[in-house]
Amino acid sequence: MKNAISLTQNNLAEIATHITSPTYSRNDLEIGIVHVGVGGFHRAHQAFYTNKLQETKNANEWAICGVGLREGDRKIYDVLKKQDGLYSLIIKHPDGNIETSIIGSIKDILLSVDDPKAVVQRMANPQTKIVSLTITEGGYNFDASTGEFNFNNTDIQHELQNPDDPKTVFGYLTAALKKRWDSALPAFTIMSCDNIEHNGDVTQKMVMSFAKKQNPDLAQWIENNVSFPNSMVDRITPVTTQADIEYLEKEYGLKDEWPVTCEPFIQWVIEDDFSNGRPELEKVGVQFVPNVKPYEKMKLRLLNAGHSVLGILGALHGHQTINACMEDATFVKYLRTFMDIEATPTLDQLEGIDLDTYKDSLEARFANPNIKDSVSRICSESSAKLPKFLIATLSDNLENHNSIEFATLVIASWCYYSDKQLNKDGQPIEVIDAMAKELHEAAKQTSTDPLAFIKQKSIFGNLADNERFANQYKEKIAKIYNDTDIRKHMKEMI
Ligand code: CS2
């Protein structure tokens, strides 16, 4: 086999002879969007839609500049820099069909730890109209028990005193907005694309809390000028594997150091509330609606919660992937029962959406055998995810005297998992979580205080004080600690 060709702008014409590649002129693109958090999801979703829009040859002002705010973003920065922002997207269909294309919508990438000024300047550039975010569920810096901004963070403290030396997303946003205000430029829209209910409202609340403390006049200007649309974003994007990189080399002779793989399904529902213009994404399938909240809630409480249910129970059982869970009839039945009797009653009316059809489609998506979405990706950062995906449902059901036992078994399993870090066969489970240590410490106390795990207020709020939940939880804990065969306990419930 001849040497693989590297994915770069210079090689694009040659690559385009055998892989679908941008047909628009990337040179003519101007950066209109600065995106913080260029992970797989952003590249499979927003950058994909933007690329599609650019293919209409009528969206030159909407190229993306990616921004990494953490040292951990260095690898994606290095790769995308080397590849001129280009990457391959590999869409894997359930029938084995694979579609590969080169995405060209990311025109530049910056790493704040190397050049903080460049990031502020890019956001403050007159051409920038939107700053979008995928900073993960844990990135919004709020306390789950109070919902308030967490000022105890040392970087935040530093930024409050030194507005010209930003560290976190909040510091960068206010530094750039201040520059725009000083130069009489219009504000940009701040568009959250994370899996949080009311993601725009939450972002607004956090940015405003921070700005009010840092500079009350600026805060007033932000309040009057910046919009924060809520959105629901959806596309299952597993972690890229070495096999994906090798697939491109073997199949196409292409050397892409960090391609993205994803499912065919994609959805983006967003409120049409932009302070400084927006791309015409409706031309490529994005839905603009006046109120996105019911969609967000449906997606978070069925898809994301469904993932966590399968992920945590699956990890304990020893399943490696979500599709492996879906080959296990007990898991399928458990998931559907959870969705039907615990998640669905908490949802709002959604005109034109049949929830049974939606749930059927989720089952089909989870079962896609080619996605091989790892249980470990789903379980990662559960301390940030579960309050939004599962615990909110549990609280609603407690209030409405509905069933809570399906969610409670998941929480109890999460405790066991955090405590022992082993599956039922004694194989180690790697816990990937910013709070891994705290989770382990709390879970370890279960033998002396069975409620220790759910007493972590930053995750569970005051739920441990709820008698019905506490009793149900204790019962599940006793079952699991007594016999780790989680599938047996699931079977008893369905
Ligand atoms: C997953 C999501 O992070 C998770 O646990 O549920 O990444 C999910 O795959 C996406 O939100 C799908 O849109």
TrEMBL record:
GO terms for molecular function: oxidoreductase activity. PROSITE patterns: MANNITOL_DHGENASE. This is Mannitol dehydrogenase family protein. Residues 32-283 form the Mannitol dehydrogenase N-terminal domain. It is an enzyme of class 1 (oxidoreductase). It comes from Maribacter confluentis. It holds the Pfam family Mannitol_dh_C. Keywords: NAD, Oxidoreductase. It comes from the Bacteria. Its EC number is 1.1.1.-. PANTHER family: MANNITOL DEHYDROGENASE 2-RELATED (PTHR43362:SF1), MANNITOL DEHYDROGENASE DSF1-RELATED (PTHR43362). SUPFAM superfamilies: 6-phosphogluconate dehydrogenase C-terminal domain-like, NAD(P)-binding Rossmann-fold domains. Residues 291-480 form the Mannitol dehydrogenase C-terminal domain.
